[in-house]
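Ops channel
N.P.: pipeline sanity check, posting one input/output pair.
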């Protein structure tokens, strides 16, 4: 990890959006005066965003970072060039980024409620409710003004590992169909299988299905069968490895990690 130490720069205030569920769930409420830590990521601004980034920054494309004087934020390369568009920042403490979002620590100086009005309204507040969505459906979230005094950036190795993980996830497909379409016995986790994408008995989904054609090979990551109950709900139940498919009277739902060689 790379640490950036604060320099006391008076222009270093970070205005970052916080989703309503985030502070309604758990963690310190981000009200003025509290010390706060969270991950930062940046994204293209929408026309309704009032708090767009105005500070100069450096874009480090290979690390997917935009770096300011005392803090940094993750920038997904699929958003294009951050230097040519308006951007906003998001703050989270429920980080699922695999360690590739920088973590900033500092003091909250300003807090604004974001309200669903025409136009979107931003109202300065000093007190927050823990579960605002229970009583106030018009509340969209917050924008906090955070003065960071330290920021920890991800390493190049962590970013590379995350990219490899995302690529692996992208090769996953879900295959649903009659049990006998999968052979004489039900496949098990880690089994190598071959799937005919043109088999009319099969329903196939996945983010990169359009990149595939014909018969593809891959490894089973999950296999279950659907069992409906009287209410109409379909429960997903595991099937013992080696079960004869002739004895299974329900569709199988098989998750497959397609071998990389099938993608151009």
């Amino acid at each position: 990890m790379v640490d950036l130490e604060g320099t006391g720069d008076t222009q270093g205030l970070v205005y970052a959006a916080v989703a309503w569920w985030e502070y309604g769930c758990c963690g310190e409420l981000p009200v003025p005066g509290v010390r706060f830590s969270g991950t930062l990521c940046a994204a293209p601004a929408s026309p309704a965003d009032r708090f767009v980034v105005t500070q100069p920054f450096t874009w480090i494309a290979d690390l997917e970072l935009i770096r300011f004087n005392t803090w940094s934020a993750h920038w997904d390369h699929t958003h294009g060039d951050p230097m040519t568009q308006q951007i906003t920042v998001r703050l989270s403490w429920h980080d699922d980024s695999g360690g590739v979002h920088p973590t900033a620590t500092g003091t909250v100086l300003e807090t604004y409620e974001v309200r669903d009005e025409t136009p979107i309204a931003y109202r300065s507040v000093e007190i927050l409710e823990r579960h605002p969505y229970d009583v106030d459906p018009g509340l969209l979230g917050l924008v906090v003004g955070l003065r960071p005094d330290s920021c920890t950036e991800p390493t190049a190795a962590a970013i590379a590992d995350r990219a490899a993980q995302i690529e692996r996830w992208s090769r996953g497909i879900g295959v649903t169909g009659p049990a006998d379409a999968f052979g004489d016995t039900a496949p098990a986790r880690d089994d190598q299988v071959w799937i005919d994408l043109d088999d009319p008995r099969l329903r196939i989904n996945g983010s990169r299905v359009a990149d595939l054609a014909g018969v593809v090979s891959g490894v089973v990551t999950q296999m279950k069968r659907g069992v409906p109950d009287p209410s109409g709900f379909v429960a997903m139940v595991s099937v013992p490895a080696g079960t004869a498919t002739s004895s299974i009277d329900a569709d199988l739902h098989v998750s497959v990690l397609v071998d990389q060689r099938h993608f151009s």
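N.P.: looks fine end to end. DSSP finds two helices and 16 strands in the chain.
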